[in-house]
Design a protein that fits this description.
alpha/beta, single chain, about 260 residues, about 35% helix, 8 strands
C-alpha cells in the first residue's frame, strides 16, 4: 500500500497522470507515522526512477489525531512546509498522506466508533484548515472482502476508497480497485509489480535497495460460486447494516418477535 501511495503522491507532486487520469500539480505532505526509514528509502528510490522537481515534504514523526494539541502543532508545521513549498515550487500543500491511520491513533482501536469518529473529524479539521485532501493508508481485516478494518463507517466517510490486494500466486501482480469514488466512476482496476532498485551502498559496500511500482493491465477478476463479489447495491445495503449495528444499541427481542 505504501509503495502505491508514494507513487501516487510523487506523480501529483510532479503534475503527472495517475492511472491514466489527469492531475493538477499540488504540494504533498507525507506523514510517515511508522516505518519512517523504509518510507524514506522508497521515496529516494521513486525520485531516482522519476527525475524532476517533486513538490513533496516528508514528516517522519507520528501525530496523535486524538490529541487536539498535537493536531494544532501538525497544522502549524504543515503551514510552514507549505510556505517553503510555495517559494520553492510555486504550489501549496493540497494533499496530506497519513501512513498509517492506525499509527496516528496510538493506543486506540479502529473498531471503537467514538475513537475512529473523532480521528476522522480531526482529519477533516486538518484538511479544512489547509484547504487540502487528507489521504489515509489503512488495512483490511482478516476477511479482505469486508473492506476496511474496524468501524464500517470509515467507508461511508470517505470520498475515495482504493483497495490494494497482494497477489496470492508468487510472481503475479498486486491489484488495485477503486471501490468508491464520490461523484465519479468507481470500479477501475489496475495492477503492478514491485521492482527492486539500488539506491546506494552501506558502509560495507553492499547495495542498499528499495522498491518502486511498475503498472500494467489488471488481470480479469476471478470469481466462483463461493467468492462472488456483491453488486454495488448489495454492498451499499450490507455496509448500511454494518453501520447500524456498529452505532446502534442491542435491544432484547420480544417472545413473539
Amino acid at each position: 500500500k505504501s509503495a502505491f501511495v508514494i507513487d501516487l503522491a510523487g506523480r501529483i507532486g510532479q503534475g503527472r497522470e495517475v492511472l491514466g487520469k489527469y492531475t493538477r500539480r499540488v504540494g504533498v505532505a507525507y506523514i510517515a507515522a511508522e516505518g519512517a526509514n523504509g518510507v524514506r528509502k522508497r521515496i529516494k528510490a521513486w525520485r531516482q526512477e522519476n527525475p524532476g522537481a517533486t513538490a513533496c515534504a516528508l514528516i517522519s514523526r507520528p501525530v496523535n489525531l486524538l490529541d487536539q494539541d498535537q493536531v494544532e502543532d501538525l497544522v502549524a508545521d504543515l503551514r510552514a512546509h507549505g510556505r517553503d513549498m510555495l517559494e520553492l515550487h510555486g504550489v501549496a500543500i493540497e494533499l496530506i498522506c497519513f501512513d498509517t491511520l492506525a499509527a496516528c491513533m496510538p493506543g486506540a482501536s479502529d473498531s471503537d466508533t467514538a475513537q475512529i469518529s473523532l480521528a476522522i473529524d480531526r482529519l477533516q479539521y486538518i484538511a479544512t484548515a489547509l484547504s487540502a485532501f487528507a489521504l489515509t493508508v489503512t488495512h483490511t481485516g482478516k476477511d479482505e472482502g469486508r473492506g476496511i478494518r474496524g468501524w464500517s463507517g470509515q467507508f461511508a466517510a470517505a470520498d475515495l476508497v482504493i483497495c490494494i490486494s497482494k497477489a496470492a500466486d508468487e510472481g503475479a501482480p498486486s491489484t488495485g480497485t477503486i471501490e468508491k469514488f464520490k461523484d465519479g466512476e468507481g470500479g477501475l482496476r489496475f495492477a503492478f509489480h514491485l521492482r527492486q532498485v539500488t539506491i546506494g551502498q552501506n558502509q560495507r559496500g553492499k547495495p542498499i535497495t528499495s522498491i518502486v511500482p511498475e503498472f500494467e493491465d489488471a488481470p480479469p477478476r476471478r470469481q466462483n460460486a463461493l467468492s462472488r463479489r456483491l453488486s454495488p447495491t448489495q454492498e451499499k445495503v450490507l455496509r448500511a447494516i454494518r453501520i447500524c449495528t456498529d452505532a446502534g444499541q442491542t435491544v432484547p427481542a420480544s417472545g413473539d418477535g
